[in-house]
Please model this.
Amino acid sequence: MLRSVVLGTGSALPAKIVTNAELAATLDTSDEWIVQRTGIKQRHISSGFEETTSVLATRAAEAALASAGLTAADIDLIVLATATPDYTFPATATQVQYNLGITRGAAFDLQAVCSGFVYALSVADKMIVSGMHKRALVIGAETFSRILDWTDRTTCVLFGDGAGAVVIEAQSGTHSMSDRGVLTAHLRSDGRHREKLYVDGGPSATGTVGLLRMQGKEVFKHAVGMITDVIEAAYAATGLTSADIDWFVPHQANKRIIDASAEKLKIPPEKVVITVDIHGNTSAASIPLALDTAVKDGRIRKGHLVLLEAMGGGFTWGSVLVRM
Model:
């Protein structure tokens, strides 16, 4: 059988860093208030049109290719998760494809908000193991700063911009849980929860881009249960347990959600990768950003069993279990 094996990781962040203290200068908030409720200390914010979603995605893709020891010519599939594309169309993935000089294969966007990278990795995995494609770039990239209401202290302090990417390749496996690559993936959605986390605009509904709106308490109330659901599904599908996990790389939305989820799943704090303090919530980019951070600093290594999970607006949620 074939497995989708991760060959390399990469990330890109805007140069501009905005601290809590800087936000407190214009909003009725404070560093203490933000850190206590979210764990966030700073976030990266894109500057003008020099750091669009496609620009950040391209930089992350180039870093992932370098990490994998490959060139753009080796790639025949790009799946890019984003809720903040450069344009309504064409797909941002095609702009990355163009930037990299790739003229073959397929490139398309996928939209599942904060769950986007988990969804994109799941989709790319199926296309790889089917034999349709050989190597893929899977990217999560966002410029959420463009859809924030900067007068709303309950939302604008939470989000940041950035991009992360992985290169995956089809390799032979043994059909055992010791294989490298994606072992299982589980995706969910429930559209009844739209009003809890959404953007109040769109081409068809309003003819505008719109701004992000969120019922924070409602999101928090549902998050831990939904996360637990898809992780327990991963365990059931593989026969593995939390004791087998080397690293837990959750969506970086809120440290309190991350801590509560890890505690409920009996994953010790020392196995949890946290970057929300320095990146904020970068939506579809948060998991690949955190993954690349832990690969670069040597925590996540070849052979490690890594659990990814996310929950996003809509609601969408999902998990991927991958052996690096």
Q: What stands out?
A: The chain has a mean pLDDT of 97. The longest strand covers residues 161-172.
